[in-house]
Design a protein that fits this description.
The chain has 265 residues and is of the alpha/beta class. It has nine helices and twelve strands.
Length: 265
Amino acid sequence: MKKYAVIGNPIGQSLSPAMHNAAFKELGVDAHYEALEVEKLDRAYDFLKKNFAGINVTIPHKVGILEYVDEKEMAVDLIGAANCIEFGKTANAYNTDMYGAIEALKTEVPKLKGKRVLVLGAGGAARAIVYGCALEGAEVSLYNRTVEKANELAKDVRTKLGKDIRVLRKPELKGLDILVNATSIGMTPNANESPLDSIPKIVVMDIVYNPLDTKFLKQAKAAGARTINGVEMFVQQGAESLRIWGYKPPIEVMREAVLKELKEK
């Protein structure tokens, strides 16, 4: 049996085992996926490499894992973090968040080139979304409550890709095609919060998936916007992990498993 895992600290609420084990069952492969709480990466890494065919990596180890790997894909170098490792003769690092974000957006906007995108936030998820949209040829603006952090991300993109990202002092919604909440605002237990007071009738994505229907998305739907919930990015990045490990992901089955797990939790 091939073993896979997601590591992090804390990790108890992870939806990844339910999603990946549903995929393995659907595919009929002899594989199992589990969640492992890892406090000290230096103590756990050799065990992980010896016993698992691949791992997903979440907070707080997405950056620290880079010290141990042999090869890194382009997205890892751009974003400065990895969330998927393939163990073989070498340990190869990937960042599937960028892929997941772009594939989620493409469910409503198949071609992102030339689209005007505003990303709220400047953390890890925002980095993946900003880089992904920039590589697709979108015109990206960025708003973060801490302007310095947004400026750092914009400078990073300019240095690595030669593309300009507008950093806003306040959200500018006029003329947008796509609006993305890449912050944790609205996440349970603060489900009554939203990063904005009003939302235009455009395409709106929220990376928060608990609750599934955030206040931000409710505002968007009330305005007539087309919405993409946080489950879509989560499922799409999980699907890319499976491809990296050599499987063809059954995306519908994975989505259903995540939605069922969310409902039960």
